[in-house]
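Lecture notes, structural biology module. Today: joint structure prediction for complexes of two components.
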Amino acid sequence: MAFESLTERLQNAFSKLRKKGKISESDLKSAMREIRLALLDADVNFTVVKNFVKTVRDKAIGADVLDGLNPTQQIVKIVNDELVKVMGDSAVGLNKSPKIPTIIMMVGLQGAGKTTTAGKLALKLKNEQKARPLMIAGDVYRPAAIDQLVQVGQQIDVPVFQLGTDVDPVEIVRQGLQKAQEENNDYVIIDTAGRLQIDEKLMDELSRIKDLAHPNEILLVVDAMTGQNAVNTAEGFNNQLDVTGIVLTKLDGDTRGGAALSIRAVTGKPIKFIGQGEKMKDLDVFHPDRMASRILGMGDMLTLIEKTQKEYDDKQAQDMTEKIRENSFDFNDFVDQMDQMQNMGSMEDIMKMIPGMANNPAMKNVNIDPKDMSHMKAIVMSMTPAEREDPDLLNPSRRRRIAGGSGRPVVEVNRMIKQFGQMKKMMNQMSKGNFNGMEGMLGKGVSGRLSKLAMNSMVRKGKKRKKKRMKKNKRNK
Amino acid sequence: MSIFGRRKKKKLEQQALEEQQALAKQAKEKPVAEKPAEEKSDAPVEEKAPEVPINPQAATTEQNKEVDRYNRGLEKSRRTFGQKLADLFVNFSGVDDDFYDDLEETLIGADVGFETAVQISDEVREEIESKHVTDQKVISNLIVSKLVSLYTRNGTTEDNHLVFATEGPSVFLFVGVNGVGKTTSIGKLANRFKKRGKKVLLAACDTFRAGAIEQLQEWGKRDGVPVVAGPEKSDPAAVVFDAVQKAKKENYDLVLVDTAGRLQNKVNLMNELDKMRRVITREIPHAPQEILLVLDATTGQNAMNQAKVFKETTEVTGIILTKLDGTAKGGIVLAIRNQLHLSVKYVGLGEQVDDLSPFSPKDFVDGLFSDFLETSK
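The predicted structure, tokenised, for the full assembly:
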């Protein structure tokens, strides 16, 4: 996950601070140096780093951290606030035109992911707003770029307007807009060819498209792995086209994503979306505050909750809690849950969102193979309905049969049944608000404490809700 | 059901293959008629860069053009680097902590890589403190000499030639993350080798990204080189198998294998690459002769991770650095060499078909510093 290394380094810096009861000026200085190096190592532009560290230092000194009761926490807060400030204060949505169509233009360097993002954005609009977007294929230079957009369009069932590669892109856009007018499309997404910001001829072409289409939104697509150069790119495009927003792509890699920090700081333009995967639905709204708390290893509970809500329907969730409480959670529910989890994205991503997990050393080398899930499912599917409901039935002979049926070794079947038992036990405990077994899972130090706080508050909230529910039930009775 | 599905797929592949072969035949017949047979006999076993030209006269002008383009393309990278070092001393007032911070920033700003920058800065600091140097010129020379020694420390002789098989087809596998320019580099290289009289075959193993197969086929058409392709979303290892079979049967000199872009932290996709490599080695021992990692020059620190992980899974033998035109900084060449001992074999300098040049790290580094040394004198 992006930003991981940054998290690690910042935490190192803070844990050094924590080791002493009181911090001196020189401690603060070395902590600032760590922060500075961490940010530079994360590809944040050095001018941005300079300002950032200076502000943090000034604030830390100004806030009397040196005599404070818990200086570490104060510095964490200052760094966090400052990070959020650099990345923009809150999530920014798409600019919309007062009357249809809203025109969105995608620009950027070669290979940044413009075409893919255009497709993802169209799908997002279609799914979330029931929009009817039209995509215009304006990349006449790269071989098969139009084919790519057409195929993307087919995948997500969105029409693509194209005139082949022999027509001037400006003309393609003109005719495409006309078509959108005729067909009453509410969004038009213009895909353009990748270009360097110093290529005058091609940049001029973009300006002409801009003058013609008057786009409501010019999205600069930037590869999150870009180094110091990100700032030049952003400045170059911004100066000539006055872009309205940024899309960061390939954030699912292990890049530290310093580009996110620097681009906003240098251009002042908001980061609107982030691309986090190769599937068409992997485009998310960028939340600066959430990203900042992720950087600081405080987890990203909000995104996790939002994701869960999207995939989980309420009634089912209630049934599930009921079942856990009654201790009647069985293999059928297990499979249901696995399906839902798979819909939410890869296990690793989900784990990283849980506070304290992002930099838990135990989690570092965990690579959860998506096939593991399928294997588990296959094992459950090879059980008889009676076995699924009552795991106690599973004697060695039955287990051998299941192993044969699912094509997995017996050890794996045994392991899975054992895991299921443990999971059931843990869930039961958790539903009673007992976290004793999990203590060790949360990291040590600041992050560990923070995550424990977060966990506890979640549990408290859960209990409150439960009480409310019980009351309601009583009243209804 | 699944057996039927597989048979049907096989059939489809067979058809596609036959069509390809027919195309290849057409494409093949022409050049063979024009070119004398002697040419094959002097095909070099191991390519010596610059490659042995067929027609000396045409080649010299060609070479000059290439050198020109090469210099022009890299000029910017060099200038920014020299400029940066020179800028460092504009506000030079004395050696203090800020100076080392600035030095680190300058080096990082030139994308020499974080670790390299810190390493150099630490070494310079040590030297300055032990010798009590205060003179600006001495310090600037010290920095440059550190950079140069960093370069020579890892050996100056370095084979950045591409390795070809002594007999039978050579296979080059192209790997890298998404959007770095793998397909484009293959298109450019295919053109280059075809011009030098090699019989080239392309394998479209990016079966994942929309339009990727078409993109390679378009390059194939432009270069007049046949392309082996399978249906979309099919197993890339199957496509590579077909391509290798075809190359063996029809005596191709060179197979360039395009793969889907993948982020290095996706374990399953990396395993898929390894499978492709195994399939190639099984069919032709000693192949693939080259596994070329394509890196985007604008990538920051992550380039190191990419190189490291790809090297671990697929035994990368060399690097193609793309998009080095524009404002990209050349410092990354130093970092890659310093930390990974991988040599950059080719650099991409533009969008035209011949904008890909063999790369000599030594010349490049010499260029970086000679400019700076002149400005500081």
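Point to remember: Chain A touches chain B through 57 residues (CB under 8 Å).
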